[in-house]
Design goal:
- InterPro entries: Acyl_CoA_acyltransferase (IPR016181), GNAT_dom (IPR000182), N-acetyltransferase (IPR051531).
- This is GNAT family N-acetyltransferase.
- The chain has one domain: 3-Layer(aba) Sandwich (Aminopeptidase), CATH 3.40.630.30.
- It contains five helices and seven strands; from the N terminus they run βααβββαβαββα.
- The strands form two sheets. The chain has a four-stranded antiparallel sheet with strand order 1-2-3-4, with helices on both faces.
């Protein structure tokens, strides 16, 4: 799998991803409109210009087939948030963990002190991925929604990994330790 920065010509791929059954299950009742995706891509391009090294990255397999995206978006205060969305055909293959780990490493190589991520508490798959990427659960919180998704009553969860924990998970020579 290869990651590259999102481009304007990715809008169709992103719309296709959002419309796949199950992809938006923990995010929204229906996929965003094409206009909303175009606006989001425009904002992502502006974000990348303001925050070098951060942004949304398209994931492709060795043949160039679109698999989804990974995001490492800076909040402007130096605490980037990790996120991802994969096509159903890419689920269960370890790609979310592979891409997530790559972006966590990238964030710390850029000099950040911590990386955060959020998910619905009932989203067990994403929570496992975050843990495999080295993030630890730090908080469960509740957000009021006008039209809550099933499972919202269990709350949202916040995960994080600090630079210290990231360095601890690696040997002094930068080699990842077994079981880390």
């Amino acid at each position: 799998m290869a990651l590259r920065p999102v481009r304007e010509d990715d809008v169709d791929r992103l719309c296709l991803l959002n419309s796949e059954p199950g992809v938006m299950r923990y995010l929204d009742r229906r996929p965003p409109s094409r206009d909303a995706v175009e606006a989001e891509v425009a904002e992502l391009l502006r974000h990348r210009a303001r925050h070098a090294g951060f942004g949304r990255f398209v994931a492709e397999d060795d043949g160039g087939t679109f698999l989804g995206w990974f995001g490492l978006l800076s909040d402007g205060a130096g605490v980037p948030e990790l996120g991802y969305r994969l096509r159903r055909g890419a689920w269960g293959k370890g790609l979310a963990t592979e891409g997530g780990r790559a972006l966590v490493d990238h964030a710390f190589e850029l000099g950040v002190e911590r990386v955060v991520a959020e998910a619905m508490a009932v989203n067990a798959g994403s929570r496992r991925v975050l843990e495999k990427c080295g993030l630890r659960h730090v908080e469960t919180f509740h957000v009021p929604f006008d039209d809550p998704l099933p499972g919202t009553e269990h709350g949202e969860v916040r995960y994080e990994i600090t630079r210290t924990d990231w360095l601890r998970s690696r040997g002094a020579d930068g080699v990842v330790l077994p079981g880390a």
